[in-house]
Amino acid sequence: MALARKIRRNQTGLTLIELVIVVSLMGLMVAITVPSVSNITGFNLKAAASQVAGTIRYTYDLAARKNSTFRIVFDLDEQAYWVESASDKFLLKGEKTDVRDGELEADEEEEEDLRSRRFVSRSFIEGGEMWHPKSRTTFSSFAGQLTKKMKLPNEVIFQDIWVAHQSDRVTVGQAYLYCFPTGMTEQAVIHMGDEDEDIYTLQVEGLLGSVKIDSHYVEGPEE
């Protein structure tokens, strides 16, 4: 009888040890397989920055292939972006669009329509087209899997956007990055952040359309 009780005690003790080991292993597995909220947020910011950079590069190539002007619309209120195409040939003039209190002073689309001009050729002049009433260049959404409207993850935001034709950074409303059929885009600096105050900087090279991504804040030319 005493021997049986001793065996049961040993069996009970062994089961408890096994249970402790199992619980410890489960905790270790959870710690390994489930990243912290901070790590998830950082991953989302990095992924979102890469996706925006890919859209810029794709739009740059698209403008050359389609022989048309395209632009990327960044909506800092909705924290979204998408691609639009021009209805006609389009060229920005040299003067910059004013930015006040972080917002474009006038509606950018109407402002750029008024300031845009056509590429003038000899046939355009001799054919008399230049004397006809001209409709303003308009932009509309371009249908495509890589050009549709994309919203940033909830914890990721566009902090500010500077583009070469702006006088300052835009922090509210919309900003526009133009890509031209001549194989050029505008120089731009885009700052993206998350709730952990991590910052990614996207620097757009105007001549090549390349995008450099830095995992820290890089000042733009206007600063």
Give a short synopsis of this structure.
The chain is α+β, with helices and mostly antiparallel strands and 223 residues long.
Walkthrough of the structure:
The protein is α+β, with helices and mostly antiparallel strands. It has one domain: 3-Layer(bab) Sandwich (minor pseudopilin epsh fold). 34% of the residues lie in helices and 25% in strands. Strands 1, 2, 5, 6, 8 and 9 form a six-stranded antiparallel beta sheet that branches. Strands 7-10-11-12 form a four-stranded antiparallel beta sheet, with helices on one face. It starts with a helix and ends in a 9-residue tail after the last strand.
CATH C-level category: Alpha Beta
Number of DSSP helical runs: 4
Mean pLDDT: 80
Going by helix content, strand content and strand pairing, the class is alpha+beta
Radius of gyration: 28 Å
Q: Largest sheet at a glance?
A: 6 strands, antiparallel
CATH fold naming: minor pseudopilin epsh fold
Quote the distance from N terminus to C terminus: 87 Å
Task: Give the overall shape, derived from the CA principal axes.
Answer: elongated
CATH architectural arrangement? 3-Layer(bab) Sandwich
Relative helix content: 25-40%
List how many beta strands DSSP finds: 12
CATH superfamily: minor pseudopilin epsh domain
Q: What string, H for helix and E for strand, traces the elements in order?
A: HHEEEEHHEEEEEEEE
List the domain count as a whole number: 1
- Share in β-strands: 25-35%
Low-confidence stretches: 111-120, 128-134
